[in-house]
């Protein structure tokens, strides 16, 4: 699994003009599922993200996690994180898991994040989504678990 994480002051995701998920302070998690990914990867990443100290303390140091600041997460599936652009001019997505595998694993990841103490909103798997992100910092991290 691959996750592009952004610390945000607020974020929202809309499908066909309807907001389906919105948060204030917290994390936007763009989640890609690769071939062979499963519960092990989802569990490791959920625990890692819940405890990741990327929010400032009273001195502005990265000493607080999303749980510590009572933040939320917005989980959005994004198979394009597995886009391979090494050849040609059109990305290949052969490394991305089939939607029958990816969709339940994205849901499972969101569930595990909730269990780790992070209130979680989600986008709609496979839908054309408009994502509004107010990156705070900016802070953007790449996480991956094979």
Map the helices and strands.
Layout: E1 2-15, E2 18-23, E3 26-32, H1 39-51, E4 55-56, E5 62-64, E6 72-77, H2 99-115, E7 120-122, E8 129-144
Parallel strand pairs: 3-6, 6-7
Antiparallel strand pairs: 1-2, 1-3, 1-8, 4-5
Helix pairs in contact: 1-2
What does it look like?
With 146 residues, the chain is an alpha/beta fold. It has one domain: D-tyrosyl-tRNA(Tyr) deacylase (D-tyrosyl-trna(Tyr) Deacylase, Chain: A), CATH 3.50.80. 21% of the residues lie in helices and 39% in strands. It has 2 helices and 8 strands; from the N terminus they run E-E-E-H-E-E-E-H-E-E. It has helices spanning 39-51, 99-115; strands at 2-15, 18-23, 26-32, 55-56, 62-64, 72-77, 120-122, 129-144. The strands form 2 sheets. Strands 1, 2, 3, 6, 7 and 8 form a 6-stranded mixed beta sheet that branches. Strands 4-5 form a two-stranded antiparallel sheet. The model has no long low-confidence stretch (mean pLDDT 97).
């Amino acid at each position: 699994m691959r996750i592009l994480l952004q610390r945000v002051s607020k974020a929202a995701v809309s499908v066909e003009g309807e907001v389906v998920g919105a948060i204030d302070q917290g994390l936007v998690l763009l989640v890609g599922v690769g071939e062979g990914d499963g519960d092990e990867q989802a569990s490791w990443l959920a625990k890692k993200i819940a405890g990741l100290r990327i929010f400032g303390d009273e001195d502005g140091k990265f000493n607080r996690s999303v749980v510590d600041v009572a933040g939320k997460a917005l989980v959005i599936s994004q198979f394009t994180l597995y886009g391979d652009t090494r050849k040609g001019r059109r990305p290949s997505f052969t490394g991305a898991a089939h939607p029958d595998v990816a969709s339940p694993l994205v849901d499972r990841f969101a569930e595990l994040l909730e269990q780790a103490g992070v209130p979680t909103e989600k986008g709609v798997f496979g839908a054309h989504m408009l994502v509004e992100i107010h990156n705070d910092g900016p802070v953007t991290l790449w996480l991956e678990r094979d």
